[in-house]
Write a structure and sequence with these properties.
The chain is mainly beta. Helix content is about 15%, strand content about 50%. It is built from two helices and nine strands. The chain has helices at about 1-15, 80-90, and strands at about 20-25, 30-35, 40-55, 60-70, 105-110, 120-125, 130-140, 145-150, 175-185. Strands 2-3-4-5-6-7-8-9 form an eight-stranded antiparallel barrel. A hairpin with a 2-residue loop joins β3 and β4 (about 60-70). The longest helix has 14 residues, at about 1-15. The relative contact order is 0.18.
Length: about 190
C-alpha cells in the first residue's frame, strides 16, 4: 500500500507543472502610445521601469509591470519646440501629472490558456493613482508577448480636450481612448 501511495505522489508531481517566474527585459521591451484627435494623431514611446510575469502551463497567472511616466516621448513631431511643448503638456496636470504620479502600474490577475498563441488577459491598470479593471488580448511571440491595449483616459481623470466633458471643442477635440502597443521581451 505504501508503494502505491508513493507511486501516486510521484505521478501527481510529474503531471503538475511548476510555475515559472520571468523578468521583463526592459531594454528590449517596447511600449508605443498613440493618441488621436479630430485633426490627426501623435505617437511616441514610454519605458518600463521593471516587470515580471509568472507562467504555469502556458497560462499567465500573475504579472506586474511598472511604467516610467517620466520617460514619455513623442516621435512624430520633428520640430524640437513643438515636440517639447507636446511632451511637457503630456507630463502636466492636464494629462498624466508626472510630477505627482511618476509610475503607472499594470497588474495581470488572470488569463485564459494560450490557444493558437493568443490569450485573453484581465487585470488592473493604475494611472494617476486611479485603478480600473482592464481586459485585452495578448499574443505569444518568439521573445515574449505582445498586445494592443485600448485605454479610456477619462477613467483616470485625464479630461483635457474630451468631448465627454467639454462642449464646442470642434477640431480641438482629443479622442478619449489612446492605444498602448506592447512588445514584452522576457528572460
Amino acid at each position: 500500500m505504501k508503494k502505491i501511495n508513493v507511486l501516486l505522489a510521484i505521478l501527481l508531481i510529474g503531471f503538475t507543472a511548476v510555475a515559472q517566474e520571468f523578468s521583463v527585459n526592459t531594454l528590449k521591451s517596447e511600449l508605443k502610445w498613440t493618441g488621436k484627435k479630430v485633426t490627426g494623431e501623435h505617437w511616441g514611446f514610454i519605458n518600463l521601469k521593471d516587470g515580471s510575469i509568472t507562467l504555469k502551463n502556458d497560462k499567465t497567472l500573475v504579472g506586474v509591470f511598472h511604467i516610467d511616466m517620466n520617460s514619455i516621448n513623442n516621435k512624430d513631431l520633428e520640430d524640437p519646440e513643438w515636440n517639447g511643448k507636446l511632451v511637457g503638456h503630456l507630463k502636466s496636470d492636464d494629462f498624466f501629472s508626472v510630477e505627482n504620479f511618476s509610475v503607472a502600474t499594470l497588474k495581470i490577475t488572470e488569463s485564459t490558456p494560450l490557444k493558437d498563441n493568443a490569450a485573453d488577459v484581465t487585470g488592473e491598470l493604475t494611472i494617476k493613482g486611479i485603478t480600473h479593471p482592464i481586459a485585452f488580448k495578448t499574443m505569444k511571440t518568439e521573445t515574449g508577448y505582445s498586445a494592443s491595449i485600448s485605454i479610456d483616459r477619462t477613467k483616470y481623470d485625464i479630461r483635457y480636450g474630451s468631448g465627454k466633458f467639454f462642449d464646442s471643442l470642434g477640431d480641438n477635440m482629443i479622442y478619449d481612448e489612446f492605444i498602448l502597443d506592447v512588445n514584452l521581451s522576457i528572460e
